[in-house]
Design a protein that fits this description.
heterotrimer, A mainly beta, B alpha/beta, C alpha+beta, A: mainly beta, Immunoglobulin-like, 8-stranded antiparallel beta sheet, 7-stranded mixed beta sheet, 3 helices, B: alpha/beta, Barwin-like endoglucanases, 8-stranded mixed beta sheet, 6-stranded mixed beta barrel, 32 helices, globular
């Protein structure tokens, strides 16, 4: 994914509908469900065996850098059903290793820049497997979102120093399908083409 | 499965709960509510704010064979802290800015508020006399809530409406029988019972702190029987449920008496020694043979029995219940020559009773009360063989014919020897112990010398009375002493106030709602009673004085008043110049006031509560935090008001005036008089004085003091003291046993304070004879409210003490948080009502809209609306008292018949609110 | 005391013949732990009338837990805020100060449709008068020995403490709510502001100071006992293991709960002619069996038998134990007075 450097102010970048974003190249990222067998406990495996999750097949991503901050805009089609108990959510994944499909592992944790539609603040998390997350107070992230015609557009921002091996990942949770924790759709590592 | 690797993170996750359970100060507190339980709590404070409270749990076990009192708590007490800053809390003085009850207010200063109140009081004194200033009495809020207004009212000569005549916790039938109504043992004595009859009460709702003595007695071998119309929450913890038609308990009780007598199960020795059963009556007139029937020397209140040894009429001793060498006959009839030369047939009360009981065979009673004859027989036999205690609340007294129920229940106990022994008697109310509070009212200065002066004065007065009544007990003399002070006091039985000033005349004269056996109209009886001077000096403000200022302190007449808005709001209110409410929360009455003055709540001030026989300890509440907003204690408020009234008196040129008895009064120096020239400013000093003087009076141990209370939270009483209501328990307080009432009567033969000096079942007053109520009997509840299919009963709810906790949002989460009418599924179906529907309940008196709750525990034909809902929780602010006529039984107008005479909290006409007929109709879902 | 022996199991015994449904336990718990506005609908401890729908509404049919052997996870349903109900706001301000002159009355500001609350069906019970029946059942977290919630938690925020409490590190909880699905007793709430689940903490800050949990120490009915199961002297052990009169609730849920119940006796019902039907109990035995399993019949027999023995003048260790002559007997090793603890200042 091409990552340009911009001088646009952060406020503009944090607006998903800002003109800044329409000028950038975007990329369609394909996602697939975190494997059921990788879910962290029997309860989740049993209870979701007959209830598929992670059906958000793709998202459109674009990224831009401003100083030390990396801004990533994601856009995807939400399903039409009203969001009730669980929030729609998305995360930018940072890190390395082969275990992005399981949202990291004990030995190869990944970082989450995490946005959820029911939270005012974005979170920074460390994920060591599906749903196995801890807060990561060391990293400050921010997010903003808009919902238009059933499409979410979300900008997540974090320190570009967190990005290792010049790659990021994307995960999306469809709240109305009771998706949360490890019940997500996740991409593979996306190499960043930084200017 | 412990996860020690987790511990670092866990520490962080746990800290917020450690923080929540952190405080910087602990004090004792209790809630001084009208449950009168005064459970000792600890109050936990951080940064000047109450966080929570928790029962202190410091009671020592006093008897190794009886469970201790701990923890003593209930959900209301454990959530009190949540009310301090609750949504109904009053924090600033308010003046109404619209029409009365419109809900428009302006905040004013204390100075403005008190000046306005004082000006109105002085104007009322000037125009109508001090008896036009009327206080609604309360038993809510603790002694330091009540003492200030009583003192103030006394100083200016105002009227205080007797609280028991307002709230109707006065069981007239106990008074008729025993000459007193206060006869409960301490709550732990329940454990000593072998048979517990939960009868006309629902302790699982209303006696939460001590309900464990019932379940524990059951494990200790007691049989627990609940007699109630509905399968109540108390029936749940019982061994037997006796469903009864509402209002027919007298029939049920008398049927058990019939069985006991017919089967020869009567404890004859007990009946002979304790009751009027052996006393002789004229067999034809059914009047007692009295001294003046027999010879010229003997007084009218000398009674007789027939002595078997000498086969002659003999004076029944008046100074003792012991029969000594006499062998009084219970059975028989004899011919006796009277003073006027006539010869009459005489017989005994027992014989009359036996005839009366023939009307109540179990089969006949079943027709009246619906209880199966075998149930009646078996329970009667059981009572006759077991230590039986009736756990009675304050429900009977709220029935029109509650006195008949109570008299019949007393008869059951009398026939079976069930009072004055451990685990027996009637568990109702008892007030005793804090004699220092009584003495303080008479003190003209502080200190022990003044106490001794007053106690000496009382001793002298008692000695004088004893000379006139050499055969009287201390208790009887105590009542005599109380009588002397009455007319000079402020207390008035409120029935007359309601009759003359609140528009009850029409209602009470509605023959269709009254006992059909009344021979004359209510008004006829009332005028007769007044003409005879039976209530002389007590009817105030009288018909010629217009009530002008109404002051309500910690009480809530608008919610409570039987008859709803018609009496107070529509009749009394328009004539009042000023309505003043002193409260800690926006009550229904505060909403209808002109001036609302915010009072400090418990935890924000120091207080003691009524000494009663719950734990038999002083209830103490300390000041933990400053009052919210500008709230003040009642002592502060009335101290300031006294000064203001004095100022206004001078300003309005109304300083010297006459009180209702035409005695001169002055407003000069009122401010100083109130504080006894500055002696009582600090409320801690007042409490210390009450404690100190209670030690002197012999009701508290030597170490009783404020600092002891602050160390231990409560202090157990050591004696009943020197004043009449306390002495009515008639027992010694032992350090290592529960308190059992009436042992003086049973063990020591001390006479009862009745006309006959015995537990009295025959009332040979002509009005009682005319009503055929000279002996206990059953009468159905009159058709109050009109001819409607459902009988409305009530009781205290589980969730609040009256309305006090209705604004507690946390407690509101433990129920539906809106008024409910409980209906049986059968009636609900009949009227097309489903659970949760909005229903109109109505009768010829009025109507209210209320949500339904449907349960198979309710008896078909019965409807239950528990007490405590504020009118403003109903559409149009019309609550369930709209359908209560508040009828008064005419017989309670009788006075000057032995013990049937007014006593504060005691004998007086009181309104009935239970067993009202209504219909229901669904309004909406 | 709790520190001396790690990995112990605390247990509660609730005597349903002493419980009077007063909600003091619920209130005591709430005032201490869930006073925050975000927690207003939470009742970690709740008391319900049985038979009834309970808290949350219909919880017994929401699944979760394991099979009866405690092995295979059962799919559970997450109770919704509507199932829990409550947390009402009121219109005090408008009624008191809004100048409505009686046109607006004080009432919960909640939709009427489907309205529910913690104790909504209080005292409704089942059956027809005069033979209607009901009793009260307090419920709190069962602090199970085989806790389905702990297993279902992906973040491992939930764990068994050394006292056998099921606790949650709220700083770790990510709000996944699998615990709420997996718990068959539905005693876990979600805090939608804090984005974490919350449940009974077994009053661990009190336990650490040897103070009994609030639901035990504040129970006016003296119905709740607490102690360690491995403590030979503990009353809970005596009631559960020696007298065998305390039973787990829905043991078939397979989580090995540690709140035990002494099942309720009841007055005999009445026959059609209103005489007493001494042959039958009022509460249908099959209903109690549905709650407490087959053992309940034997337990009720034991209780009634011991009670009758005392009535006939005999002595019964079981009855004496249940009477609780001294309050401290209820509190197990946790007899410290909280007021004696200097926490701050």
């Amino acid at each position: 994914m091409k990552v340009e450097t911009t001088q646009s102010p952060a406020e503009d970048l944090m607006d998903p509908s800002s003109a800044v974003w329409s000028d950038l190249t975007s990329e369609t990222v394909s996602l697939s469900p975190v494997p059921l067998e990788a879910q962290p406990n029997e309860y989740i495996r049993v209870s979701r065996a007959a209830k598929p999750y992670g059906a958000t097949g793709e998202a459109v991503a674009s990224a831009v850098k401003n100083g030390e901050q990396l801004f990533v805009r994601l856009e995807w089609q939400d399903d039409a059903s009203p969001n009730t108990e669980f929030a729609d959510a998305a995360a930018i994944l940072t890190g390395k290793g082969d275990e992005i499909q399981t949202l990291g592992s004990e030995d190869a944790p990944v970082g989450f820049w995490y946005w959820a539609s029911d939270r005012e603040q974005s979170l920074s998390l460390i994920s060591r497997g599906p749903g196995v997350v801890r807060n990561n107070a060391d990293v400050v992230t921010s997010a903003s979102a808009s919902l238009d015609g059933g499409r979410w557009a979300v900008v997540l921002a974090g320190p570009s120093s967190e990005v290792t091996d010049n790659q990021i990942g994307v995960a999306i949770w469809n709240g109305s399908n009771d998706e949360r924790a490890g019940l997500a759709a996740v991409s593979g590592w996306l190499p960043l083409d930084t200017e | 499965m412990a996860n020690p690797s987790h511990e670092d993170a866990v520490g962080a996750g746990k800290s917020q709960y450690h923080d929540r359970w952190t405080w910087d100060q602990v004090t004792f507190g209790t809630h001084c509510l009208n449950c009168l339980a005064t459970c000792p709590y600890r109050v936990y404070v951080a940064d000047g704010k109450v966080l929570f409270e928790e029962p202190a749990g410091l009671f020592e076990q006093i008897d190794p064979n009886v469970p201790d009192m701990n923890p003593m708590a209930c959900q209301k007490g454990s959530a009190w802290s949540q009310q301090l800053d609750g949504p109904d809390r009053l924090k600033y003085p308010l003046r109404r800015a619209g029409e009365r009850g419109e809900g428009k207010w302006e905040r004013i200063s204390w100075d403005e508020a008190l000046t306005e109140v004082a000006a109105a009081i002085v104007a009322a004194i000037d125009m109508e006399g001090p008896e036009s200033v009327v206080f609604e009495e309360t038993v809510e809020g603790g002694l330091l809530t009540q003492a200030p207004y009583l003192r103030f009212a006394g100083l200016i000569g105002a009227v205080t409406l007797d609280a028991n005549g307002l709230i109707n916790d006065f069981p007239a039938g106990h008074h008729i029988t025993f000459g007193k109504f206060s006869c409960a043992s301490s709550q732990d004595d329940t454990f000593n019972g072998e048979l517990l009859l939960i009868w006309h009460s629902n302790p699982v709702y209303t006696s939460i702190p001590y309900a464990h003595f019932i379940t524990e007695a059951r494990y200790n071998g007691a049989n627990v029987v609940t007699i109630a119309p509905d399968y109540s929450a108390s029936a749940v913890i019982s061994d037997q449920f006796v469903p009864i038609k509402p209002g027919t308990d007298a029939a049920f009780a008398l049927a058990m008496c019939q069985v006991i007598v017919a089967e020869g199960l009567t404890n004859l020795d007990f009946v002979v020694s304790q009751t009027d059963m052996p006393l002789l009556v004229n067999a034809e007139t059914k009047r007692f043979i009295r001294g003046n029937d027999i010879d010229e020397e003997s007084p009218e209140d000398q009674f007789y029995w027939w002595d078997n040894a000498t086969d002659a009429l003999v004076e029944a001793p008046r100074d003792t219940l012991n029969t000594g060498d006499y062998k009084p006959e219970l059975e028989g009839s004899w011919t006796q020559k009277l003073l006027d030369g006539s010869e009459v047939k005489v017989t005994t009360v027992w014989e009359l009773m036996r005839v009366r009981l023939q009307d109540y065979t179990p089969e006949k009673a079943q027709e009246m009360c619906g209880v199966h004859p075998e149930v009646i027989r078996n329970l009667a036999r059981s009572i006759a063989s077991k230590r039986t205690k009736i756990l009675e609340g304050f429900n009977t007294s709220k029935y029109y014919h509650g006195d008949l129920m109570e008299r019949a229940m007393c008869l059951v106990l009398a026939l079976t020897g069930n009072w004055g022994r451990k685990g027996t008697g009637i568990q109702g109310l008892a007030l005793a112990g804090l004699d220092g509070y009584q003495i303080w009212g008479m003190k003209q200065k502080r200190g022990i010398n003044e106490t001794i002066r007053i106690m000496d004065g009382i001793d002298d007065a008692m000695a004088q009375l004893r000379e006139q009544n050499p055969d009287a007990s201390d208790e009887i003399l105590g009542y005599e002493l109380l009588q002397r002070g009455l007319v000079a006091g402020t207390a008035s039985p409120p029935a007359f106030f309601h009759y003359y000033h609140c528009g009850y005349k029409e209602t009470w004269n509605n023959a269709a709602w009254s006992d059909p056996e009344m021979k004359r109209s209510f008004d006829d009886y009332l005028q007769d009673a007044v003409r005879r001077g039976w209530w002389g000096g007590l009817i105030k403000p009288g018909p010629g004085t217009d009530p002008t200022v109404l002051i309500s302190v910690a009480t809530n007449p608008i919610r409570r008043q039987r008859g709803g808005s018609a009496g107070l709001l529509e009749t009394l209110w328009p004539g009042l110049e000023k309505i003043v409410v002193i409260e800690n929360r926006m009550s229904a009455t505060a909403l209808q006031a002109d001036i609302v003055l915010p009072a400090a709540m418990q935890y924000e001030r120091i207080n003691l509560q009524y000494a009663i026989t719950s734990s038999f300890s002083v209830g103490f509440s300390d000041k933990a935090v400053e009052p919210q907003g500008e709230a003040k204690t009642e002592w502060e408020i009335f101290s300031l008001l006294s000064q203001k009234v004095e100022e206004q008196g001078i300003e309005q040129d109304c300083v010297e005036y006459q009180d209702g008895r035409r005695q001169p009064k002055t407003l000069k120096g009122l401010g100083d008089l109130f504080t006894t020239n500055g002696a009582y400013v600090n409320e801690e000093d007042i409490i210390s004085e009450w404690l100190q003087d209670s030690i002197e009076a012999g009701t508290l141990p030597r170490n009783a003091s404020l600092s002891t209370l602050r160390e231990k939270g409560s202090i157990r009483f050591t004696g009943l003291g020197m004043f009449a209501p306390g002495l009515s328990l008639a027992t010694n307080v032992k350090p290592n046993e529960p308190v059992t009432a009436f042992t003086w009567h049973v063990e020591d033969g001390v006479p009862f304070p009745t006309l006959t000096r015995r537990a009295q079942f025959l009332i040979d007053h002509p009005w009682f004879a005319e009503a055929d109520e000279d002996l206990p009997r059953h009468k159905n509840p009159p058709q109050m409210g009109g001819d409607y299919p459902l009988l409305l009963t009530s009781g205290h709810s589980r969730w609040t003490i009256h309305a006090s906790a209705m604004g507690n949002k946390l407690l509101a989460g433990t129920h539906r948080a809106e008024p409910l009418i409980n209906l049986s599924p059968i009636d609900a179906e009949k009227y097309g009502i489903e659970d949760g529907d909005l229903v109109e309940m109505r009768n010829d008196r009025g109507s209210a809209k209320i949500r339904s709750k449907i349960s198979g525990r309710i008896q078909p034909g019965q409807a239950v609306v528990y007490n405590g809902w504020e009118p403003h929780m109903f559409e149009g602010w019309k609550g369930p008292n709209q359908v209560e006529p508040g009828m008064v039984k005419w017989l309670h107008l009788v006075s000057r018949y032995g013990h049937l005479r007014y006593l504060p909290f005691g004998w007086q006409p009181v309104p009935a609110d239970r067993a009202v007929y209504i219909e229901v109709e669904k309004i909406s879902s | 005391m709790s520190k001396q022996n790690k990995n112990r199991q605390m247990a509660w015994v609730i005597d349903l013949n002493k419980c009077i449904g007063c909600q003091t336990c619920s209130v005591a718990c709430k005032v201490l732990w869930t006073r925050d506005d975000s927690e207003k609908a939470q009742w970690w401890c709740s008391v319900n009338t049985q038979p009834g729908e309970g808290t949350p509404r219909g919880w017994e049919n929401m699944g979760g837990g394991y099979d009866a052997e405690g092995k295979t996870s059962q799919i559970g349903q997450q109770p919704t805020p509507a199932d829990f109900g409550g947390g009402f706001e009121f219109n005090h301000e408008e009624v008191f100060y809004g100048g409505s002159a009686g046109k607006v009355h004080l009432e919960p500001q909640a939709p009427r449709e489907g309205r529910w609350a913690m104790n909504w069906d209080e005292d409704q019970g089942a059956g027809e008068w005069p033979n209607s029946y009901y009793f009260y059942m307090p419920r709190l977290c069962n602090h199970c020995s085989n806790p389905a919630c702990v297993e279902a938690c992906p973040t491992k925020a939930m764990y068994k403490s050394e006292d056998g409490l099921v606790l949650r590190d709220e700083s770790v909880c990510s709000g996944g709510r699998f615990c709420m699905e997996a718990c068959p007793y539905k005693k876990i709430y979600f805090n939608y502001e804090k984005h974490i689940a919350q449940h009974c903490i077994g009053c661990f800050p009190r336990i650490e100071k040897n103070v009994a949990p609030a639901c035990v120490r504040q129970c006016p009915g003296r119905a709740v006992f607490i102690g360690y199961l491995d403590d030979e002297d503990s009353v809970v052990r005596k009631l559960i293991m020696d007298h065998k009169v305390a039973l787990p609730l829905h043991g078939e849920f397979g989580t090995a709960p540690n709140v035990y119940y002494v099942p309720p006796l009841s007055p005999h019902p009445l026959k059609e002619d209103m005489s007493i039907d001494t042959e039958n109990p009022r509460i249908p035995p099959e209903y109690l069996e549905g709650l407490f399993g087959e053992e309940v019949h034997g337990v009720l027999k034991t209780l009634q038998g011991e009670m009758d023995k005392v009535r006939e003048g005999g002595s019964s260790d079981l009855m004496k134990t249940l009477i609780v002559y001294k309050w401290h007997e209820l509190l197990g090793p946790f007899t410290a007075d909280p007021a004696d603890i200097i926490v701050k200042g």
